[in-house]
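Listing S7. Sequence submitted for prediction.
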Amino acid sequence: MYQSLDPARIIETLDRLKARIETRFPNSGLSRVCGELTATARQTARRAAEIAAHNWPLRISVSIVILAGIVGLLSALRYFHLEDAEADVGLLQSLEAAVNLLILVGGATWFLIGLDDRLKRQRALDQLHTLRSMAHVVDMHQLTKDPHAQTDPSALSGNDLTRYLDYCAEMLALIAKLAALYAERMRDSVVIDAVTEIENLTTGLSRKIWQKITLIGALDERSARGA
């Protein structure tokens, strides 16, 4: 029951996060980014479910094509009579034609067998690219928040700035969880590597955010002592 991620819970968490951001920072860019991330999460949940399901129409079509190819290969081999070859040249030509036919059918079979997995991989990679881009968008929002600029009248207060950065860190963590949905449903090494890359990216960005939050706490403590 608790061995896999529940997409509905992730979406629910994002909805609550967006409400919290909207309450604290109404009509902010971060709130709109969170809304976009929530919409992306719903799309990710649908895509992940589609990837987990078997594409039976495609599999049946591929099976029919492969079976037809095998039948055609067996029918063609009936016309090869190697024992009747009168010369070495004729024997070599017959062998070459048979080998080429086997290679052609084998290659086509290998391509068709992996067609479903390749289509799923491409759809997953497209969605992962979107999540990676959104992680960078969240990072752009936190980059403009400088703990040392609290003396600026237009800057956020220490408490508001901490909350803002905390919301960014939460969004990055949820982006990593959305990416992990694909790793749970696919055993494709390319997809798993892409998911790992996003997890490393969000972890690194979150680390920078928490360094800022720690710095804000230190500055507030210093100001309190000075007062």
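Caption to Listing S7: primary sequence and predicted structure tokens for the chain studied. The helical segments are 7-24, 29-52, 56-77, 88-113, 115-143, 158-185, 189-226. The chain has two domains: 7-54+116-219, 56-113.
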